[in-house]
Amino acid sequence: MEIHQLTPFLSVSPQITAADVGVAASRGFKAIICNRPDKESQDQPGMEEIREAAKRHGLDWHYQPVVSGQITDADVARFTELMNQLKGPVLAFCRTGTRCSTLWALSEAPRLDVDAILKTTAAAGYDLSAQRERIEQLAANTQPAEKGARVAAKRHDVLIIGGGAAGQAVTGSLLKRRPDLDIAIIEPRQEHYYQPGWTLVGGGVFERKQTVRPMSEVMPKQVKWYQAAASSFLPEQQQVVLEDGEHLGYRILIVAPGLTLDWDAIPGLRETLGRNGVTSNYRFDLAPYTWELVQSTRKGKALFTQPPMPIKCAGAPQKAMYLACDQWLRSGVIKDLDIEFCTAGAALFGVADYVPALMEYVERYGINLAFQHTLIAVDGDKRLARFKVTRADGEVEEVEKSFDMLHVCPPQRAPRFISSSPLADDAGWVELNPETLQHSRYGDIFGLGDAGNTPNAKTAAAVRKQAPVVAENVLMALDGKPPRAIYDGYGSCPLTVERGKIVLAEFGYGGKLLPSFPNWLVEGTRPSRFSWLLKEKMLPWIYWNAMLKGKEWLAEPEILRHRPAEHEASAACDFADKK
């Protein structure tokens, strides 16, 4: 548990769990304040569970949520009131502790010197220098400056939102081309995950520890790392606002925050994840439980679900099922299992060329296919799953299915700070040109990865091809030229149909097959042992040591030689206006 003391009365912390409440009680805390809105992100523990833990340990519980990057005077007044009411010591928490520290700093403005306040928060690990002006205004008992144009204290040539696969890959590609480029990355997480490996963790092939590294080891030393969350965008001012209210300026912005797994969209799901036979390879902490269930489930009913598109790695729900079935087949228990694939889609896979090979395994394992079945609720204690089913005649009904094991792929959406921003399309995704990956309305903004609205498969393989395209086009934009590097929609989905064989699906926009290897080496529409070796042995190494480092093996971008003159003039003027 990470605790930072501001004063003998108040300490702050990043997000805590119910288990951490007992630790806080043992350290003498008398009250807990939560400054983070419930359900702010998909990896956030449920607030009710933490509140109940506080009650059990005899700690006062207070819920005062504040919106990241938008702390109001009313928020400060309420926090001050709480501080005056409570008996300490008090522990306040939010996502990183920044909001709690900011509330304290602003509440102390009338009493403490601004330098003393900022020195205290800095000593606790929170640089709130961006709040100096507001603290001084509050100290002088004046109203804060009216919302409007503001000059960012810090500005970078390239500002990247997200330190995941997309953010790190495009950083590597940029530094490969221009090593002295001024780049900054906004990323609050302390860990970096190799998410494609979680399927193999759930299949008993990888250990979970093989799929994670400290973010500090992945982050390039040449870049400035802001260990905070982005809160909002001011594209007309070329600024991003962080959760502590700091404004960062940019010449070019690259948006790569990934997507949100919406566990709460299915009532009852979050409460039963990790128990009652309910699991998902889409979470780092649950993939090992998938393998435990596969080993322990020897009879009964096993359900595997897939929600409506878009989702990242559209083959992952099937991969979990095939690896489980292979284990059940090898252990001789598959005859005692009723296995069902419940997908919201109307087909087994979106690219028809790969369906025949997959159907061979569906028949081998005796899997029942339930098309147009959307999971809408889970009762873990009763082991019941409810589905919305669309029949062939268009009629919709709800059905319940019992289960002994349930593997869930959750619904997925863009992060809230994206979907509510000026950058979003009507569906909430970053609005991008599908070829150049430049924003459709802001010429100084580019995007890649899962948060974009481009109609490609949301996979790490897509990012591997997108990163060089964005890097080329960003440098062209910085040099006052129109973007000419082109992304063809490439995505790859290594479908693990059994332990030791994979159907390597590679395709681009419109389902066009885009194989990376000659047919004599890999027949992409058929299961292959080489593809398994590629997935198990080669791709993890390529990810950590090549893709994130700007080594673009089999990923060199196509750059058009000429573009229509009127298009070039329009793009150049669009960027020039922003400069």
From TrEMBL:
<dbReference type="InterPro" id="IPR023753">
    <property type="entry name" value="FAD/NAD-binding_dom"/>
</dbReference>
<dbReference type="InterPro" id="IPR005939">
    <property type="entry name" value="BLH_phosphatase-like"/>
</dbReference>
<feature type="domain" description="FAD/NAD(P)-binding">
    <location>
        <begin position="156"/>
        <end position="275"/>
    </location>
</feature>
<protein>
    <submittedName>
        <fullName>Bifunctional protein tyrosine phosphatase family protein/NAD(P)/FAD-dependent oxidoreductase</fullName>
    </submittedName>
</protein>
<dbReference type="InterPro" id="IPR029021">
    <property type="entry name" value="Prot-tyrosine_phosphatase-like"/>
</dbReference>
<dbReference type="Pfam" id="PF04273">
    <property type="entry name" value="BLH_phosphatase"/>
</dbReference>
<dbReference type="InterPro" id="IPR036188">
    <property type="entry name" value="FAD/NAD-bd_sf"/>
</dbReference>
<dbReference type="InterPro" id="IPR015904">
    <property type="entry name" value="Sulphide_quinone_reductase"/>
</dbReference>
<dbReference type="Pfam" id="PF07992">
    <property type="entry name" value="Pyr_redox_2"/>
</dbReference>
<feature type="domain" description="Beta-lactamase hydrolase-like protein phosphatase-like">
    <location>
        <begin position="4"/>
        <end position="109"/>
    </location>
</feature>
